[in-house]
Specification:
Elements (H helix, E strand, L loop, with lengths): L7 E4 L5 H12 L3 E6 L2 H13 L5 E4 L5 H15 L4 E4 L14 H11 L1 H17 L2 E6 L12 H24 L3 E8 L2 E2 L2 H11 L6 H13 L3 E2 H13 L4 E4 L1 H12 L4 H16 L20
Parallel strand pairs: 1-2, 1-4, 2-3, 4-5, 5-6, 6-9, 7-8
């Protein structure tokens, strides 16, 4: 068992969504929390809510894509609390569409946060987790770290890589006998703002957002992102306390996992059919082939 009460738990991407819900759930269970995000206003809101739960959070703005900043942050947190037991590498962004149409800058952006943010957090905090004698690395992948979908190439690449890195890390730590557990989390459709945040980023970058993209995001958010973030956080922390190496969050994640295991050759065909139907619904009667190839909003992590 990997208990939470009294442990120092670090949560990245804590300003909203699953990260905020994780911070609150950990605080409710008696953890001492260190919270970070690039969104300072959202982060302040999360910190205030943990204080209302009688926690005394350490809170700091952090860009997980910045390796030096993450390394400095790890030393600051360890100095503040004297020990670090758990790190929840949760920060993530949506983005990245069809291979033929996605610019390199978009791949760089998504991978720098979703993959390298996890690498930076793990490497920076791992020595402290080992030193604690009872550590736990929790890396948030996605349903799309199990099942690949078209027009989401950057996102799927990052989340499959998080899964591979985390499973490799677990084998490595087991072989070395270090006192650190490792879990990879695969959330399905969780009700967060990650999809709308992707559109906001596109607008801020000067890219035109089409009505089809807006419709896709709206439909995806309304129809597929159903699980409350609070419920997802409870599932994750329950899995951590039970010491599970693989934590599937939601029926959709469990179904995707089963489908990929049972029909590895068939599932890409089914995913492509589902994408065409989805695109057809958001095109408001126009042929799906006439829509602009864009990124489909992913199941929500971060």
């Amino acid at each position: 068992m990997s208990g939470v009460r009294g442990k120092v738990a670090v949560v990245t991407g804590a300003g909203s969504g699953i990260g905020r819900a994780l911070a609150l759930e950990l605080a409710r269970r008696g953890a001492r929390v260190a919270l970070s995000d690039v969104d300072e206003a959202g982060l302040a809101g999360t910190a205030d809510r943990t204080r209302a739960l009688r926690a005394q959070p350490h809170s700091a703005r952090l860009d997980v894509a910045d390796r030096a900043a993450v390394e400095a942050y790890a030393e600051t947190v360890a100095g503040h609390f004297g020990v670090v037991h758990q790190v929840y590498n949760n920060a993530g962004v949506a983005g990245g569409g069809a291979v033929l149409e996605t610019e390199w800058a978009e791949y760089d952006r998504v991978l720098s946060v979703n993959l390298f943010g996890v690498l930076h957090g793990t490497k920076a905090f791992l020595p402290h987790l080992v030193a604690s004698g009872d550590g736990h690395v929790v890396n948030v992948s996605s349903l799309n770290g199990i099942l690949g979908q078209g027009r989401m190439t950057a996102y799927c690449t990052s989340k499959f890589a998080v899964r591979g890195f985390t499973e490799s890390l677990r084998a490595e730590l087991l072989a070395a006998g270090h006192p650190v557990r490792v879990s990879v989390v695969h959330p399905g459709g969780v009700r967060t703002n990650i999809a709308t945040a992707a559109l906001e980023h596109a607008r801020a970058s000067g890219r035109e957002v089409t009505p089809d993209e807006e419709a896709r995001t709206r439909l995806y958010t309304e129809k597929l992102l159903r699980m409350p973030a609070e419920q997802a956080a409870r599932i994750v922390v329950d899995g951590v306390e039970a010491g599970r190496p693989r934590i599937l969050v939601g029926t959709d994640a469990r179904v995707a996992d089963l489908l990929v295991r049972l029909a590895p050759r068939l599932y890409p065909v089914l995913a492509a059919r589902a994408e065409r139907r989805f695109a057809g619904r958001t095109a408001q009667g126009r042929p799906a082939s006439g829509t602009r190839a864009t990124s489909a909003p992913p199941p929500a992590d971060g």
